[in-house]
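Open question from group meeting: does this chain pack into something compact, or does most of it stay loose? Before anyone orders reagents, we agreed to write out a predicted structure and look at it together. Recording both the input and the output here so the notebook holds the full record.
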Amino acid sequence: MILRISAGSGLLRVIATGEFSLAEAKRTFLEILDAVLQHKSERILFDGRELKGDPDTIQRFLYGEFAADAVRRCIKGCGIPPTPQFAYVLQEPVLDPQRFGETVAVNRGMWVKAFDNLEDALGWLGVTQANKPDPGMA
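Structure tokens returned:
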């Protein structure tokens, strides 16, 4: 997986491309947390609409668990904002219609929601027209 990361107005924008694998998803999530820390971002928009793959149920569980645990550790020890808000924009089959990975992460204390479209994700993050990401990054 390849990430393009940009930051501004408290929003960290991550565009992910490539093939989903659990190992790559974990590695890139740590990369995202480093950027959250560097930019002091409170809202994270993960745009994975171009990701390919079909994660199975256990991969969704393990990723949700990993992400929530990593966020919790960083809040306690790294100094990232206390309640970072993560919006994931994905397409099926990477996006699970049942949102299992989201449920796993939320049940472990992560503030995260998965979407199938960018506008709903931006609205949930509270991104107004004035501070929407550059369309060139889409």
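Observations to bring back to the group:
Strands lie at 2-8, 11-19, 43-52, 85-89, 111-115.
Helices lie at 22-39, 57-77, 100-107, 118-125.
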